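Final report, closing paragraph on structural work. Over the funding period we assembled a curated collection of sequence-structure pairs, and we close with a single example.
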Amino acid sequence: MAVLAVAVLIAGVVVFFDPFYHYHKPWCGLKAVLNDKEYQCVGTLRNFDYNALLVGSSVMENNNNGWYDDAYGVKSIKAIRSYGATADLCYLLDIAYENHDLDYVFYNIDPSSLVADAETTFEAAGCPMYLYDKNPINDVNYLFNKDVLFEKIPYQVANSFMGDYDEGLSYNWAKWKTFGADQTLSIYFRQKNVVPMLDKDVHKDKVLKNIELLTKQVREHPDTKFVFFYPAYSMLWWDGAVRTGERDAFIQSEKMMTEELLKYDNAKVFCFQGEEEIVTNLDNYMDSIHFSPDINKFMLDKIIDGQNELTESNYKEKLDEVKALSEKIVKKIMPEYEAEDRFVYDMTE
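Its predicted structure, as stored:
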């Protein structure tokens, strides 16, 4: 009986505090302390109160939800998946729509997500599926977990009552990172040999499957306003895309996706890949992809003002301008860095 009593007590403590929000939203003065998306995202989508989502990969995490709430008069939370594969993000959208009506979805489209397999990766990546399914039996993995008891709950309580934790900064990682050219270049392992450019339609079959996944969300939820955007990756990413021969295929996949999304009245698409002053300034980045929160805010402000929007009449031209910028980067800017011997080369080739 004593063992049973202890077990009930332990389970009760976990259910009460529920740091992964598997059973309920925060209560009794506890804040929504969100720093572990693989464990917390699904629970928040099922149990929190919201009518808007910020959807995307790690480059979406440094947004402050409050920026969107204030600008659009909504209550937003994040639906985040590392790498931002289309199938994974659509899976999270499906969970959100189970019990919520969404006024807005702000969706970051990473180029790699368009050419990825149109299959979810949660289980293969080792995510805690006992928090994803609705099987109460395997909840024992959560209810009797020493890390939850002795690490996650104390962390949740400390951030709720002992500091100035901002709930809008959910999953934000910028505080602990260094942004700058030296940092960015030090971890950009440049491919030494340039691969001939691949055919632009090399990933066509995968792109078409991802298009169907994403347009299905737009089509089935006509009352939701979808705001899609291509983020401002750094010039090093474009240099890498050219050296691996993938650049044209990425541009083509964006044209294909954009063309289909723009067929729906409840969808808008914006592009920030051609922001030359942003993408060529490596002080904005911590690596070839991840930019500072200032860039997140820059893109949102542009969206609010209706700038950088792709339309049926201009999307091909604007994405061709991105391609032209990548050519300038490779032919004019990168040689300057080469002359200064600033690259670290990938020696595994």
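The two ends are 63 Å apart (CA to CA). The longest strand covers residues 225-230. We thank the funder for supporting this effort.
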